[in-house]
Amino acid sequence: MADLEMLVNELPKLVYSLKLNIGTSHKIMEEIILINSVQEQLRNIKKVITQEISFTKTINTTVSTIPGLASTALVIPNISLSDDFINSPREFFTAKFGKLETEISLTNLQTKIDSWIEWGYLIQAIATDILSDSRLVSQLDSHINYLSLSTEIQNIDESLKIDLGFANPKLLQQQINKISYVQEELLQTQQKLDYIVNTIQNSQNMLTILLGVSCFCGKSGFALEWLDDDHELIISSEGNLQELTDILNTCDSFKEKVSNLVLHSNSLKEQAEKALIKIEQKNSKKTVINPQLEKSAVINLQSEEVPKFSTQKIISLTLVIASSLVVLSFGSQIINNQNPRLQQMNLIFTQEESAFANFKSAQNLGMEAAALVQNPPHPLAVWQQAATKWQQAIELLQSIPEETAISLQAKKQLDSYRVNYNVIIKRLLTEKQAVANLESAQKLATEATFFVQNSPDSEQQAKDKLEQAINLLEAIPEGTSVFIQAQEMLPIYQTNYAGIGTKIQN
User: Fold this and answer.
1) Residue 79 region by backbone torsions, left for phi larger than 0, else alpha for psi between -120 and 50, else beta
2) Contact indicator for 258, 189 with CB cutoff of 8 Å
3) Exposure string (b/e) for 393-412, b if CB count within 10 Å is 16 or more?
4) Is there a single domain that holds both residue 418 and residue 328?
5) Which of 120, 281, 310, 362 is the most buried (most CB within 10 A)?
6) pLDDT of residue 412
């Protein structure tokens, strides 16, 4: 009985770990191993309970007859679920663990253990289905590279806390560029929200629904905690337990928040642009003129009588006016040439505009590259084209100077683009190797046919070449553009190989 009490006290910890954390393919493989281990321990506990029931011959005996067991059977010892999920509804705990701190018969405890073991089988099956779909794994991996939706919106909100109370054209232009970038982020966030809601609401496939949830959670990740008749799928993420309905409700509130941020960003941008225009208009009215030159060029026309000038005086006056205009023109050129601050400001504006243009071009290339590789498999040329676009986008981001307003966003984008580029390069190399395997296999099969038809004594060589061809075809991975073709050729080669082997034996 003491052994049984000790084992039952381990139940809450075991059940707590009986969940499927969605992550990379390697992480999911680790999860399958962990789930197997937990299921085995649950089976051992059930076996001990069965032995106890058989020994005592009292099937209806409650756990309360075991000293101290009734109060601790389903209460977490040493760790507390309420500490990990302090803001989560208590009914979620009840759904998975049962009513806490209540008496439970050994027979009912057996039934409960059976339900936990069945849950383990379900999440193992989900994990296996995920790993068998390379496209799904790739999409889940891409979602992990981005912030969770809540963090993303929070960061955008912080980015729009902008002070426009200054009269520096450079700073105002930087703020305008920053707001424009944030507006692009808001547009992407709105699209992401629509994708999440449509995916979760309209899909009947569990794996597709998980894509929507992974897009919602991003880097924060999530785990499948429980599913029963009374509740929807219960998910944990960022210290919260929630159902799919809760995620949809949160998305609705996020949509309202994003709409407000869009209006706020439009207002901020309009204020900044108006302030910049006023400063430029004010600066354009300031004309720098040498007072002495201005004095020499003024003709007094306010006399009561118009003086009579001789021809010689008219010519002299004309020369004076012409020379004054030349001096003014030359002086203006000198002023412009000797105003490094104005030149520096022009240089800064040009640099900011160029940096922002490069950033936008990089984003466009990234979107084009991502669109190219949707719904694989694709031929080699498509992967090469996508890799080229990612490389061009990376080069544009690398060219953005650190002193520009967009440089921080460019660095963040650069890290993400490098990850995407590396993924595409791996797919490109895989596709290239698959195509090479197919071509080599076809060549070997052709050579084997030649030996059989033209050199009957070379049947062993023909057999060896077919064997090499078969090995090459079998090495072509699923998900490549030539996989189906390889699978169609494989049985033909295997039949020919077996036929030559039989002929050699006879």
Assistant:
1) beta
2) yes
3) bbebbeebeeebbbeebbee
4) no
5) 362
6) 84
Cα angle 389, 393, 398; round to 5 = 150
What is the spatial distance between Cα 378 and Cα 428, in angstroms, rounded to a whole number? 10
- Is position 284 within any domain? no
User: Does residue 379 share a domain with residue 319?
Assistant: no
* Nearest of 410, 407, 405, 157 to residue 268 by alpha carbon: 157
Q: Mark whether 474 and 435 lie in a shared domain.
A: yes
Sheet of strand 20-22: strand arrangement = 20-22, 222-226, 234-237, 240-243
Do 503 and 376 belong to one domain? yes
Q: Cα separation of 67 and 98, whole Å?
A: 20
Could you tell me if 16 and 87 lie in one domain? Answer: yes
Indicate whether 479 belongs to any domain: yes
- The total of structural domains in the chain comes to 3
Question: Is residue 11 a part of any domain in this protein?
Answer: yes
Q: How far is CA 246 from CA 89, 219, 231, 240, 243, in A?
A: 11, 19, 12, 11, 5
Average pLDDT of the segment spanning 152-173: 84
Query: Do the Cβ atoms of 451 and 459 come closer than 8 Å?
Result: yes
**Same domain for 371 and 321?**
no
What does the H/E/C string look like for 27-95?
HHHHHHHHHHHHHHHHHHHHHHHHHHHHHHCCCCCEHHHCCCHHHHCCCCCCCCHHHHCCCCCHHHHHH
Q: How many CB atoms lie within 10 A of CB 506?
A: 5
CB 481 within 8 A of CB 377: yes
Placement of tokens 């493989």 in the chain? 29
Q: Indicate the pLDDT class of residue 434, thresholds 50, 70 and 90.
A: very high
Last residue in a domain, options 115, 132, 149: 132
pTM over 0.85: no
> What b/e readout covers 373-388, taking b as 16+ CB neighbours within 10 angstroms?
beeebbebebbebbbe
Chosen domain end from 80, 108, 132 = 132
Distance CA(137)–CA(440), nearest Å, equals 30
Range of the domain at 326: 291-337
- As a dihedral over the C-alpha atoms of residue 312, residue 314, residue 318, residue 324, rounded to 10 degrees, the angle is 90
Q: pLDDT tens-digit profile of 226-264? A: 986 666 789 999 888 889 899 999 999 999 999 999 999
CA–CA separation, 496 and 490 (whole Å)? 10
- Neighbour-count burial of 420, counting CB atoms closer than 10 A to its CB (0-12 exposed, 13-18 middle, 19+ buried): buried
The Cα 169–Cα 134 span in angstroms is 51
* Eight-state DSSP code of residue 225: E
- The DSSP call for residue 105 is B
333 and 429 assigned to the same domain: no
Q: In this structure, what token pair is assigned to residue 163?
A: 């002070």
Lowest mean pLDDT among 360-364, 372-376, 473-477: 372-376
Q: How confident is the model at residue 386 (pLDDT cuts 50, 70, 90)?
A: very high
Within this chain, do residues 468 and 392 fall inside the same structural domain, yes or no? yes
Residue 195 in domain? no
The pair of three-digit structure tokens given for residue 327, joined into one six-digit string: 């001096």
